[in-house]
Specification:
- By secondary structure, the chain is an alpha/beta fold.
- The protein has eight helices and ten strands.
- The protein folds into two domains: 124 residues, 3-Layer(aba) Sandwich (Cobalt-precorrin-4 Transmethylase, domain 1), CATH 3.40.1010; 108 residues, 2-Layer Sandwich (Methyltransferase, Cobalt-precorrin-4 Transmethylase, Domain 2).
- β8 and β9 form a beta hairpin.
- The longest helix is centred in the middle third of the chain and has 20 residues.
Length: 241
């Protein structure tokens, strides 16, 4: 029996209108649709975006995966292997499977780990690109990320090498890691850089703060209120103000 293909399907950052036609066609053509389900009454973000764009997705065969967001490498590896074991069973049956991922599948996506496992097991994988969160955030800010000879730097938001990153010229985008946001904002303020913070871009609870060191919309982004900002938060920093 011919093996199924595992597709990494980007659904964009949050606005259902930003999901691509190719992504919708891929989802429609696949036998199964897999996605991360956080459980505990929380919404499965990638699936909800796809469902808002194409309600008929509810009639597909769904694979809900429990993959926690954690920095524990061993736990992460274990959860990825468990998720792939479920998906691989469908692939062995010859069923094509679409794994939904927020933003673009090539940028900090869980699909990268599943793709490695699938490739090692002899399965074919394909990636369907989409709109990255930082591009959507720049559009929401009506701002350029790169223009002329300006460089664009994308970092995983952490305290490691932060000073060196901020010394680079051009636009710096800090993604993921909401616990590091207060320190990043503090450093940005100390260096007198222009910066904006965007949380949940394109979602119902979108928050945009053009001066993240000042209270706005009931959130003091400079006071370490990372719970309010949430996981889908990024900072875009430019050169000196």
């Amino acid at each position: 029996m011919k093996k199924g293909i595992l597709y990494g399907v980007s659904v964009g950052p949050g606005d259902p209108e930003l999901i691509t036609v190719k992504a919708l066609k891929t989802i429609a053509a696949c036998d199964y649709v897999a996605f991360i389900d956080p459980g505990k009454g929380r919404k499965a973000a990638a699936f909800e975006i796809a469902r808002a764009a194409a309600p008929e997705i509810e009639r597909k065969k769904l694979i809900r995966l429990a993959i926690p967001m954690t920095n524990d490498a061993a736990l992460m590896r274990e959860s990825h292997c468990e998720a792939f074991n479920i998906i691989s069973g469908r692939l062995r049956e010859g069923a094509n499977t679409a794994f939904l991922t927020l933003g673009d599948v090539s940028v900090y996506s869980t699909f990268g780990y599943l793709r490695e496992l699938a490739t090692a097991s002899g399965f074919e994988t394909r990636m369907i690109s989409g709109v990255p969160s930082f591009c959507a955030a720049a559009a929401a800010l009506n701002s350029d990320l790169a223009l002329g000879e300006k460089n664009l730097h994308i970092f995983y938001a952490s305290e490691s090498n932060l000073d060196a990153f901020l010394e680079l010229k051009g636009t710096r985008v800090f993604m993921k890691g909401p616990s590091s946001i207060p320190l990043i904002i503090k450093k940005i303020k100390e260096k007198g850089l222009r910066a904006s913070l965007v949380s949940n871009c394109g979602m119902e609870n979108e928050l945009i703060i053009k001066q993240p060191c000042e209270p706005a919309c009931g959130h003091d982004a400079g006071a370490g209120d990372t719970g309010a900002l949430g996981y889908y938060t990024l900072i875009i920093a430019g050169d000196e103000a």
